[in-house]
């Protein structure tokens, strides 16, 4: 054409060429009336697969949520995502030994990384999916990936040696499937450059054991990158239901004759994974709980529709706040609040920390002696205390009653007490359901009254609360009779 083009322009042109070519093939298939040759049948299958990709690009969940086999588009997208980490921290994929944990239904990322010059790619999984060597998805993915200049430094024919009976034979000199546990890869010490996983680490029963294994096999300077979906896989519309269950009860639901293992998700939160990697000796290069890609934002929009602003919610929002903004923009305001006072909002990393930065225009800034305040949610009282005593924390809110004497006898610390409005309550189902009516405490108000009278509140204060609480006025409510007594 004789016209200089940017990379973006070249990509756009390539996309147009692909689309035009597909339309021509499809048109030929429709008007042809003679018996198709084997090559034409294969071409039709290919066109059908590419048409499926076009639909997935517009509505990805049609294939990826409803089917057991992920689409080639999904794998090309995932490969591109993890390629970014390798390029950013290791320079390129060239000559890397790579381990992928949990490849799922295809080794497309492995094939693409080898095409980009990687030395060897190991796929580690305890289950070999029956469709993992289906040929058509590889061919489709290769055509989709041709728009990425990083791929196909190595010829595709060196990676897929042959196709027979709809199955692809991958070159074992480059790609190896290891049917092993993620905590027992069988690979030598310091033998790989890059370990990654996509939506896998959340399914591990003991993530720390696997993380230590990945540290063992990585060379000095190697990296490990992982993306997890920390939600209840039984019902994506109720993402946190599984966190309500006792860990032993939760695990007992899965296995032979019970719920499928792929629905099991460990109960770790993002901060647990971060601390496990640090404990195993990793330096954290990147860490985020935010959804950054358009693909993932679409997942969130579809899987969690309750997070969107409803008509009723929209009507309750102050007009000056919503003026000129879309509902999606308004829904994000909570992630970047505007505050008044000596500090302003810095950042919030879900399940990890909230940072406030000093506000230099505060009217009484001379009285503020901190540059920033960082709130760290640490659920375990023992861990909180240990961090305080080691100097990692300057202040903790709420001591375990048993820890009060420990700090009382340590001159480095001061304990401040405050009486707050709060209570510990017991709620009893007194409804008309069969379960409630079979339970004496739910069925008979006299049993509930006897239970209430049996509580030794002073004993609870002495033994359980170690004299750190006081007994306030007591109120009991009987909803079925509509009465409350102090």
What does this structure look like?
The chain is α/β, with parallel strands linked by helices and 486 residues long. Among the domains are: 58 residues, no CATH class; 191 residues, 3-Layer(aba) Sandwich (Rossmann fold); 25 residues, no CATH class; 52 residues, no CATH class. Helices cover 37% and strands 13% of the residues. The protein is built from 19 helices and 12 strands. A 5-stranded parallel beta sheet has the order 5-2-1-6-7. Helix 1 packs across helix 2, helix 2 crosses helix 6 and helix 4 crosses helix 5. The longest helix has 25 residues. It starts with 6 loop residues before the first helix and ends with a strand. The N terminus and C terminus are likely disordered.
What's the quick description here?
With 486 residues, the protein is of the alpha/beta class. Helix content is 37%, strand content 13%.
Read across the widest sheet, the strand sequence of neighbours is: 5-2-1-6-7
Q: What composes the largest sheet?
A: 5 strands, parallel
CATH H-level superfamily title of the domain at 72-230 and 268-299: Vaccinia Virus protein VP39
Q: Roughly what is the average pLDDT, rounded to an integer?
A: 78
The total count of strands amounts to 12
Contiguous low-pLDDT stretches (5 residues minimum) are 1-34, 59-66, 302-306, 479-486
Number of helices: 19
First CA to last CA: what distance? 88 Å
